[in-house]
Amino acid sequence: MKQRWMLVLIALSGILPGSMTWGERAQTETVISPVLRGYSIPLIDLSDHYYCQTLVDYEAGQYLGHPTTVLLEDDKTMICVYPKGHGRGAIVMKRSTDAGLTWSQRLAVPDNWTSSKEVPTIHRVVDAQGKKRLILFSGLYPARMAVSEDDGQTWSPLQKVGDWGGIVVMGCLTELKTGKGHYMAMFHDDGRFFKENGKATGIFTLFKTFSNDGGLTWSLPEAIYQSDQVHLCEPGIIRSPDGKQLAVLLRENARRKNSHVIFTEDEGKTWTPPRELPGALTGDRHTGKYAPDGRLFISFRDTTLESPTQGDWVGWVGNYEDIVRGREGQYRLRLMDNKHGWDSTYPGVEVLQDGTFVATTYGHWTTGEQPYIMSVRFTLKELERMAQKLTKPKQ
Length: 395
What we know:
mainly beta
């Protein structure tokens, strides 16, 4: 297997639109680990651990896909939204009041949610006055948003956010340290949906957009990076343990290279150039949360170039510093076996106060059936016991 050693110069300016050096870290060189097409860390297979799986929704003959979730502050109420179709389709909403162990029937939603053109994404936001809201986005052109001010009991119709759109709009969103009620969201486009009647250009552009009013309005999106060589998209944001840095993990849709990562230390104003992640973190739609012990669990579709679980719902366990240093991490997981070559895994990831992870996604879990929504729950302590019995996978 070829290993491509990379020497990353942390202080690089002028490579990305708006990029610049990182203050006191200028002129510092950091050697990261070799970039592997596969991975050498252990693989834990949970696919036959049926006791940790929960059915969220199934409908015979109906494609159910692309869920996202939100966990409310009571540590029990969880809301899941997803389309009846591959991205495009009526938005379905369900609620759990026992942290994902059981789920309600499909809930009543505004009529125009049936007009959704793209994957819905849901987020908790809080404004400067402490008012809590849930906001839900539906993408393509134009990007639209619905708002709930009663924890999802009632919702506004989908309404236009601005004269722009994109793919998996607001797929990731994070609170910023620039002020109360300040947020940044990110998404991508390939020329078709940012403006009305757009056309595919073969260039993928990564966008950022900001809100200073608790998520009610959003700035005109700004391009962070664009390329026709690597198609970086579907960003997933993770804040460093000390809170000073944001890492954004990116799908590589051209399938030429591994997934990539970019960093910011000024709350999204400027960014480092993208660099490849290890094969162990290569996938689509990265979604991650911290365990109580400070380790990360990240869920994604396995698109690792050399992997025995390609196309499956997988996860990664490691430390934030592993991402910074380009290290493989601690181990990989296969959460469920997707019976389709690729189509699965737009995950929601929540972590309960007791350290239980509740990961939710869609996939072809039954041969010959349309995809449906499942969740898997586990703790890192449970995984540790399994990992102690494993050997490293063959390359």
